[in-house]
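User: Hey, quick favor. My workstation is busy. Could you predict this chain's structure for me?
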Amino acid sequence: MNTPILPLISVERQRTVTVRVSRPSFKPYVMSRASLNDVCPVSWN
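Assistant: No problem, here it is.
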C-alpha cells in the first residue's frame, strides 16, 4: 500500500518547488500548505 503513496509524495514535492520559485514571497505558505495552494490558488493570491 505504501508503493502508490511514494510516487504521489514525489509529485507533490516537485509541485512545491515549482510554486516556490513562482512565488518567492509565499515561501512559508507553500512549504506548509502546498496542497491547499494547488486546490485554491486564488485564495492565496
